[in-house]
Automatic annotation (TrEMBL):
It comes from the Eukaryota. The keyword Signal applies. The keyword Secreted applies. It is found in: Secreted. Belongs to the expansin family. Residues 156-238 form the Expansin-like CBD domain. GO terms for biological process: anatomical structure morphogenesis. InterPro entries: Expan_Lol_pI (IPR007118), Expansin/allergen_DPBB_dom (IPR007112), Expansin_CBD (IPR007117), Expansin_CBD_sf (IPR036749), LolPI (IPR005795), RlpA-like_DPBB (IPR009009), RlpA-like_sf (IPR036908). This is Expansin-like EG45 domain-containing protein. GO terms for cellular component: extracellular region; plant-type cell wall; plasmodesma. Residues 39-143 form the Expansin-like EG45 domain. Keywords: Secreted, Signal.
């Protein structure tokens, strides 16, 4: 059962004021259990454990952005040069960090990946460290943008989430329509990265999603009457990947440097 994905795109300037790509100062901690970040507020479930070799993070509300920040990638490094490398590590947001004491809570693997060789356990003993972080593009090697049908899906209710979105954009809206129809219906964000609708058009479906770099993605699913249609857990491979970077207008900090 194939997924057909085609694109129409044009740029718009984001009104976001947070400028995630600038270097931010804050505090970073870690989860003692790796699974904590896989069943978090983004709704990726056990799939998250396969993201980025398990280098995951829960972000505070300013980065989580009511779910729009799910799947965002950040470069993170601690500021103790005796314990940590200058390069730091890269993480993917899969959860919401509810603590007001830390900006990011990393998987233990990601936390220790910030350390100099042989200093991993010393860093881990600190629990919380001063750090700096910035938004960076996500790169999924040998992995295309995909759409997953969620377990809550029923004949009169459709829920999906997008997976493996490369580049540096955020999904802020999703629409659905019958393939070939100009009549689009807006979907609602159920939570995190999950979108749903009760107004399901008849026939095979196509989706389009919008971000700060606006890209209309038409993802085709087969009609609901087909035997395997909308089967919970099915992931449809788009055959393409995204590398767009949102233009946040963060000058002069957004010069790509990581000094």
């Amino acid at each position: 059962m194939a997924l057909l994905l085609c694109f129409l795109s044009f740029l718009i300037i984001s009104s976001a004021s947070s400028c995630d790509r600038c270097v931010h100062q804050g505090k970073v901690a870690y989860f003692s259990q790796e699974s904590a970040l896989s069943y978090g507020a983004c709704g990726y479930g056990s799939l998250a454990l396969g993201f980025n070799n398990g280098l995951l993070a829960g972000s505070d509300s300013s980065l989580y952005k009511n779910g729009a920040g799910c799947g965002a990638c950040f470069k993170v490094r601690c500021k103790n040069p005796s314990l940590c490398t200058k390069q730091g590590t890269q993480v993917i947001v899969t959860d919401l960090n509810l603590s007001d004491q830390t900006d990011l809570v990393l998987s233990s693997r990601a936390f220790m990946a910030m350390a100099n060789k042989g200093m991993e356990e010393d860093l881990k003993k600190l629990g919380v460290v001063d750090a700096e972080y910035k938004r960076v593009p996500c790169v999924y090697k040998n992995q295309n943008l995909a759409v997953r049908v969620e377990e809550m899906t029923q004949p009169n209710f459709l829920a999906v989430k997008f997976l493996y979105q490369g580049g540096q954009t955020e999904i802020v809206a999703v629409d659905v329509a019958q393939v070939g129809s100009p009549n689009w219906t807006s979907m609602s964000r159920n939570y995190g990265a999950v979108w749903d609708t009760k107004k399901i058009p008849t026939g095979a479906l196509q989706f389009r999603k919008f971000g700060f770099v606006r890209r209309t993605a038409k993802a085709r699913l087969p009609p609901a009457g087909e035997a395997e249609s909308w089967k919970p857990g099915v992931i449809y491979d788009s055959g393409v990947q995204i590398s767009d970077i949102a233009q946040e207008g963060c000058y002069p900090c957004d010069d790509g440097s990581w000094k």
